[in-house]
Amino acid sequence: MVENSQQLSNSYNEHGYFVIRNYFDEAQISLLRKVVLKFHELWKADNEEFYQEEAFNSSLITGSEYLPITDRTILFNFISSKKIMEVVDAVIPNNPAFMNTQLFFNPVNPQQKDFWHRDCQYDYDIEDQMKVILETQVLHLRVPLFDEPGMEIIPGTHKRWDNEEEYNVRQEVNGKVSNDSISGGKQIALAAGDLLVFSADMIHRGLYGLDRLALDILIFDSAADYVDYVDDDCLPTQSILNNIADPRLFMNTLHLKSMVCS
């Protein structure tokens, strides 16, 4: 049972994240792990050079390239399950929409370092980053499939700009690099069955190690202009939608896409 939704909302608003321990049972994680590992093995074989040299994540897990409709349906049902939706509704109560899925794993190269970032830094210049963190809302729901070192985050940075230390490390200026430690960093180890919810635009980094394999579900506020980021192939077909108990996340995305096309 999810904690009081108001508590979750308050925790997210204040800190930019929360963790619910042992949220999913072994049967749920086992089924999800089986499907995700099937995707992962096929993706690795198809992207061998990239995987060996630098990859630490993949995306579009719900797409049709690697998984048949039965496995995709399992993923869509998990993403729209009561447990996920209760958490999403607590943080984004008005028209939350599905954006994408990502899979995070350890890089093959042991010299490759984890790194501090805000997701928005890959799409916006500094001035626009300052605006985005205050105006838009993108959620990561991280579901670890094995026990892992988890994440390190800077609480509260979803609502404020970097201080000097954070900026220097994240931007790699003034002698700093992006994997330097930052004072105020909070490490959150995760176990299979936990759920970590955090703002995509807070300062954070994934921590490499153990058997790291985490499925991230990305959700956005419909009021934000993010529908262009959604790959059509990652959305459920009508026949899949008919078999989903609560398809709101996908229906909201499809509605936004139809508005863009009309």
UniProtKB/TrEMBL annotation:
It comes from the Bacteria. Pfam families: PhyH (PF05721). GO terms for molecular function: 2-oxoglutarate-dependent dioxygenase activity. This is Phytanoyl-CoA dioxygenase. It comes from Photobacterium kishitanii. The lineage of its organism: Bacteria, Pseudomonadati, Pseudomonadota, Gammaproteobacteria, Vibrionales.
